[in-house]
Amino acid sequence: xxxxxxxxxxxxxxxxxxxxxxxxxxxxxxxxxxxxxxxxxxxxxxxxxxxxxxxxxxxxxxxxxxxxxxxxxxxxxxxxxxxxxxxxxxxxxxxxxxxxxxxxxxxxxxxxxxxxxxxxxxxxxxxxxxxxxxxxxxxxxxxxxxxxxxxxxxxxxxxxxxxxxxxxxxxxxxxxxxxxxxxxxxxxxxxxxxxxxxxxxxxxxxxxxxxxxxxxxxxxxxxxxxxxxxxxxxxxxxxxxxxxxxxxxxxxxxxxxxxxxxxxxxxxxxxxxxxxxxxxxxxxxxxxxxxxxxxxxxxxxxxxxxxxxxxxxxxxxxxxxxxxxxxxxxxxxxxxxxxxxxxxxxxxxxxxxxxxxxxxxxxxxxxxxxxxxxxxxxxxxxxxxxxxxxxxxxxxxxxxxxxxxxxxxxxxxxxxxxxxxxxxxxxxxxxxxxxxxxxxxxxxxxxxxxxxxxxxxxxxxxxxxxxxxxxxxxxxxxxxxx
Amino acid sequence: xxxxxxxxxxxxxxxxxxxxxxxxxxxxxxxxxxxxxxxxxxxxxxxxxxxxxxxxxxxxxxxxxxxxxxxxxxxxxxxxxxxxxxxxxxxxxxxxxxxxxxxxxx
Amino acid sequence: xxxxxxxxxxxxxxxxxxxxxxxxxxxxxxxxxxxxxxxxxxxxxxxxxxxxxxxxxxxxxxxxxxxxxxxxxxxxxxxxxxxxxxxxxxxxxxxxxxxxxxxxxxxxxxxxxxxxxxxxxxxxxxxxxxxxxxxxxxxxxxxxxxxxxxxxxxxxxxxxxxxxxx
Lengths: 482, 106, 166
Description:
The structure holds 3 protein chains of 3 kinds. By secondary structure, chain A is mainly α. In chain A, about 75% of the residues lie in helices and about 0% in strands. Chain A has a domain at about 260-480. Chain A has a two-stranded antiparallel sheet with strand order 1-2. Helix content of chain B is about 75%, strand content about 0%. Chain B has helices at about 5-25, 30-50, 65-95. In chain B, helix 2 (about 30-50) packs antiparallel against helix 3. The N and C termini of chain B lie far apart (about 50 Å). Chains B and C meet through helix 1, helix 2 and helix 3 of B and helix 1, helix 2, helix 3, helix 4 and helix 5 of C.
């Protein structure tokens, strides 16, 4: 029962292939709906096992509230991305069966990453997600940009994952075990100062692989190209999926394995956080392509999220534990960033345009999309009353509580910088005249998805209590470890 | 017995040679070759640790070898995906030099 | 006893030299077909090191998969994208000095970790029924990764075909 979400996803991943293989042209229309059914069932199964706290498969796999939180995130993201990719893929590829099958497997990989509690499962699930992401990025093989994006993404990913793997092998060597709990015990019980070196070097190497998935500077160079070249629904997926579960593993490794070395990794993460948000925001100012702009924006967002981990403090009963900040931020970011990308997809479906200049006069051509752009950009910049504000409030609050005043100040300054490039898009959409004033037709499905994401962004802002509870439940297991 | 450190040093040299190849080469296939060397270095580490290090639990006494086998399997899948992408790029623009693959700036 | 000790040392040093020389050739030779042959040499040396470590099964898997599959795949790709490999232009990119620096820095760190750490050593253990134990463990303790990797291979297979087919 405990792995039923994973089993459902595995079955549906194969089922989609079979339906594609034996079906006729008309049955193939159902492929995305079969995929969505799989995600909905996996979502329901996650809710069904809600509250479990078990370690299964010889301690390799933790089905705890923390992992279930990320499984909910993964299946929600999967459902929305499939729904918006239906119109996008039509006419761009004839291989929809393979696309949806690989996509289902990538969501499966995300759910496995969330639960991985062994070096082997961590490596395996990260690679699983990476391989499927490379394939989805390069899926439009007639499109030169898609090819190029996939190759660059692949080469960066393969190098960083090899570096990460070296770090994992050192962790195995120093503990004689693959399970994170055993490694934690080995670190906690030793008085040997030489182990301290390994406890610094090995996680730093692992951070290369995770930083690649999360797109932290200096492992971010793939992101702008991969985001620009990938099919836009895949870009939307890359901006939320790997980032979320990358954080899941980062949090799990940092908080269960290395809490006694917290004093030594906090400065490193603080520096990375500052560089990541500053570089992401400054380079975003110069972008003319909306997908590249959102790529740099999502790099910067990863920097903000990292502030929560820097300010983490699980002792006491403060509402700002840092960990809950990261979880709340991720949840808010999921809907915000997906929403922004669905706006981009809506315009691209109708006109093919992805440059900010093409958004001139959008308010007359597609008033609904233009209005929602404002909501999503306010949320990305962290301005109330939006979900993004709640997220930033909790991560910055944690940094202040732990006395990282400079870090929080840099975070706030960065949020202000980000307003400029978000506003550049708004300016084009509202205050410039369109070259071609013909209205843009938005399909009903995309409209529905836009409504859902925008509603969630506002709902989280006005009624955040359920999300607070969700985050509080999810981090319960770390309290036990401490 | 050969000390464990000897194996670790060989692995470290091999890893850094592979890393150098992966960072310094222009050709995508050559970069992939560097990556394969890095994975081999990790496997030497894993198998050497398996042989020398005290397992934390009785169930962990084969962990290093099993991990190494999984690394080999994933390396094969990685090579297949990488070469598929390289061939697709070669078809569309007659080059596999990463510096010439520059429709978008790096 | 002493001679067998000595022979183990000789085997280790010879095999390590093969692995490292092969690797050096693989990352420096201009002609990529020759570089790939260097890579195969290196894989052979590594397989030998596994034999010295008494991990026969991993050694055999190394030969079958790395040399039999991955190297052949790489050679195949080199041949398919031919015409680019024999050009006089340098095969190193402009950042090779930086890359060499990164490699040496990384080596310094890894070397330091390897020799200064007190690894939790035990009597080197040999397992007499190694291969049956590996097989049993794969479908009991490691059942979950075993099943997961099969799905991964399926996804990789489908994806690679979709992207590379004519």
